[in-house]
Amino acid sequence: MRELVVHRAKWVFPVKGHPVENGGVVVSGKRILDAGRYDELSYVPGAPVVDHGEVVLIPGVVNAHTHLELSVFRELGRNRHEGGFLSWVRDLLEARSVVGEDAVFEGYDEALKELRDFGTAVVADIGNDPQNYSRLKSFSGGGLFFLEVLGFSVENINETVAGSDRAKSFMEECEDAGSLSTSFQLAAHAVYSTSPALIWQVKKLNKRYRKAMSIHVAEHPGELEFLMTGEGECRELLEERGQWNPSWKAPRCSPVEYLDSLGVLDKSTICVHLVFVEDRDLSLLAGRKVPVVLCPRSNVRLSGVLPPVKKIINGNLTWGVGTDSLASNTDLNLFGEMAVLANDLNLDPEVVVRAATMGGAEVLGISGYFGSLDEGKTADIIKIPVTAGTGKEIFHEIIEKGEMGEIQWLTQSVL
Ligand SMILES: [Zn+2]
After folding, report:
1. Spatial separation of the C-alpha atoms in residues 67 and 230, rounded to whole Å
2. Span from the CA of 377 to the centroid of ligand 1 (angstroms)
3. Percent of the chain scored above 70 by pLDDT?
4. Which of 78, 213, 222, 320 could join 363 via S-S bond, C-beta 3.0 to 4.6 A?
5. Is the CB of residue 231 less than 8 Å from the CB of residue 285?
6. Is the pTM of this model over 0.85?
7. Considering the domain 4-60+371-409 in this protein, what is its CATH number?
8. Where are the domains of the chain?
9. Where are the alpha helices (DSSP H) in 139-185?
10. Is the pLDDT of residue 180 over 80?
11. What is the DSSP letter of 392?
12. Coil, helix or strand for 294?
């Protein structure tokens, strides 16, 4: 048996249940054996105890949506993009056309380090280059790589990178992985950039390997206009890029209703953004048990609008939080998203911290390994200094200190 260590702290937030004062977590190797009140823990007498003092122990956070291959474009994410979403896409495509592969890889590796420094236990990375699945394997926490499929005039997935032998072998490699470290699956980009046939095939292929798919949904007004009229900026962009399909007819419905008509909405289809949605869209998603990811800071940068989070919570949807990429955000610190949700939207900070841990793990289908301090889960635990006197008050401090980067990982070292 690996060495057993008892971590003691003023507060422990196991996520399931409320914060525990005078708490502890028993860890063996990379696994949690027990968590709760220190004097009620079960552990071998004589095991070393590390007292961390005036801190709270919480699980590392789950960044449920980002694009690490865009980290090299962090200049684009520094400020609000006044021209709107599609003008940002054009700027990004232009920047991408001149940047070298080495710079992209360098940005990717730096981003992995940054994620860890900000207390990230799991990252869901959406990318266009399958090579980055191998890079993600060097991340110290859990990593889900979603290879993104694009092409509005493409009907067959075998004509995309997702149909390559390499992509298929990656899917096979991580099928039925006993415990998650890094996994490979497919994402569709969005309803205005990926043909209905491709979206359906992405879903089918993921299903074959029992993986979740991801897709951006209702992120900007142009997406709604395109589905209602077949016109607007999305159409212009497709024509510019030689991707317009003249036989496609606008379905005259919302993005959520459109995806439902394609038969792809279920508990393994992760819908990201949902900024421009109606009540009936949220009811439809709840009925299909569709998990969602919100990226508030990116939405403010690109559209100046926050998603309807209170409605999403009241609608009983399972939700997690993502930073989106450094091309539309200042950093990959998930606590920055939490601060916007708690401060700008006045959400209960405890609900926000749950979403950024257990919520993300549930969305990604990995809550058996991450998201809370429970027996058997991965011991990726962070500590944050707190001075608050009550369990309710510590959540503001968790978010505030986390946003300032005042987190430390628990290590197995007793010294
Ligand atoms: Zn995204």
Report:
1. 28
2. 28
3. 97
4. 320
5. no
6. yes
7. 2.30.40.10
8. 4-60+371-409, 61-363
9. 165-173
10. no
11. T
12. strand
Compute the distance from residue 125 Cα to the ligand 1 centre, in Å.
Answer: 9
Q: 91-100 burial, b if ≥16 CB within 10 A, otherwise e?
A: ebeeeeeeee
Asked: is 61-363 a CATH 3.20.20.140 domain? The reply is yes
Mean pLDDT of 294-310: 95
Q: Which of 323, 311, 250 is nearest to 285 (CA)?
A: 311
Q: Cα 163–167–172 angle (5° rounding)?
A: 115
Q: How many CB atoms lie within 10 A of CB 9?
A: 26
How far does residue 397's CA lie from ligand 1's centre (Å)?
28
C-alpha 214 to ligand 1 mean position (Å): 9
Q: Which residue is it, tokens 């280059």?
A: 129
Containing 287, the helix (H) or strand (E) segment is helix 279-287
| CA 294–ligand 1 middle distance (angstroms) | 10
Name 239's Cβ contacts closer than 8 Å, sequence gap at least 6: none
Q: How many whole angstroms separate alpha carbon 109 and alpha carbon 134?
A: 11
Q: How far apart are CA 74 and CA 68, in angstroms?
A: 11
